[in-house]
Amino acid sequence: MIVLGIETSCDDTGIALLKDGRELLANLLSSQVSIHSVFGGVVPELAARKHLATLLPLLHEALEKSGVSLEDIDCIGVTNRPGLVPSLLVGLTFAKGLAYALGRPFIAVNHLEAHTFAIFLEREVEFPFVSLVVSGGHTSLFFVEDYGKMQFLGGTLDDAAGEAFDKVAKLLNLGYPGGPIIDKLARKGDPNAIAFPVAKTPGYSFSFSGVKTAVMSWLKKHKDYKVEDVAASFQEAVIKALVAKTFKAAEYKKVKNIVVSGGVACNSRLRELFTKRAEEEGYRVYFPSPKFCTDNGAMVAFVAYYRFLKGERAYFDVDVASRV
Ligand code: KG4
Ligand code: ZN
Fold this sequence. Notes:
- By secondary structure, this protein is α/β, with parallel strands linked by helices.
- The chain has two domains: about 1-115 and about 295-310, 2-Layer Sandwich (Nucleotidyltransferase, domain 5); about 125-285, ATPase, nucleotide binding domain (Nucleotidyltransferase, domain 5, 2-Layer Sandwich), CATH 3.30.420.40.
- About 45% of the residues lie in helices and about 20% in strands.
- The protein contains eleven helices and ten strands.
- The protein has helices at about 35, 45-65, 85-100, 110-115, 160-170, 180-185, 210-220, 225-255, 270-280, 290-295, 295-310, and strands at about 1-5, 10-20, 25-30, 75-80, 105-110, 130-135, 140-145, 150-155, 255-260, 285.
- The strands form two sheets. It has a five-stranded mixed sheet with strand order 3-2-1-4-5, sandwiched between helices. A five-stranded mixed sheet has the order 8-7-6-9-10, sandwiched between helices.
- A hairpin with a 3-residue loop joins strand 2 and strand 3 (about 25-30).
- Helix 2 packs parallel to helix 3, helix 5 (about 160-170) runs antiparallel to helix 8 (about 225-255) and helix 8 (about 225-255) packs parallel to helix 9.
- The protein starts with a strand and ends in a 15-residue tail after the last helix.
- Zinc ion (ZN) binds near residues 111, 115, 135, 262 and 295.
């Protein structure tokens, strides 16, 4: 059975062909970084227009590379929430058109569920587990009991962690997206050079707009500094907050397995600190490979696959949503 996965929730166009939920026949990604980097962030209308221009050629490329024809596709999975509405609309409308023309079912996929289950493209994780999805648009904790059975525990009250990385990189004139640049610079800096505070939030929620403002105020007051130290100290503050809340959630839910996904899960210090704490306290922490951490069509295809097997089908009146 072949599932086509379509991802257009933000600024990456992802197309994947997944066979029997296991074998990735194609997983193509078209990045829009060069379009949005001049603005220091994603411009929704430009993102949508680019998805529109990219989807069909990318699908043709995926079919050609994998030797699959349109008629071989059994089901279409598409992200319809949460994300940028103009971007989501392009992907969903494309999927509906294709499903109608081919006479195949389509399934509307939650982007956070897709990030959570991306790890299954590479390995199984025993249920139940706690999932942290940490990206440019989201910082959310879930308790996951089974395929598609996720309980929201808490999320960011303001900026997502990746958004904070991108905004701090902008303050430091480092370029966009900021996460990978800060990650690299921070390796040469002292994580304890500056004590940037992260706001204390209730339960399993997060807040990262304060730490960004703290960096901004600090930069106004200081002229002589090592940018590597600022990067490392900011990164340390954000990651420590992510580690603390995730382990608190795992403790509360009495689970030993933790999955961390989303673009920020590529971060080398994040992987180091999560792994260290897990080893110290007897937990197992799983990270998808970087290509499955950032947005991609394969994770969408995987969720559509198991939802299809459960008998789920979307109706043609299904809409997009900016939030879940
Ligand atoms: O999952 P993703 O591709 O898109 C969203 O759903 O948002 O995540 C993109 C985010 C950006 O904010 C980017 O700066 C961040 O992930 N990111 C990183 C790293 N690589 C990507 N943040 C910190 N360290 C990294 N190595
Ligand atoms: Zn994402």
